[in-house]
Input
Amino acid sequence: MTPNELMEYSGGNLTTAAHTAQVKENTVRNWLAAGSIPAVQQRSIEVLTKGKLKADK
Output
């Protein structure tokens, strides 16, 4: 998944995206700037969203 997919899932809200991923808002900002989410966090987000967002394989 991309940071943009996380943001879209969260309704475009940075605070909601951070809450969804269980990270700080600054972490989401860093992911957006980098254009990617680390694989470990992607797997965690996949579990937290009950598979609605899928980790890259």
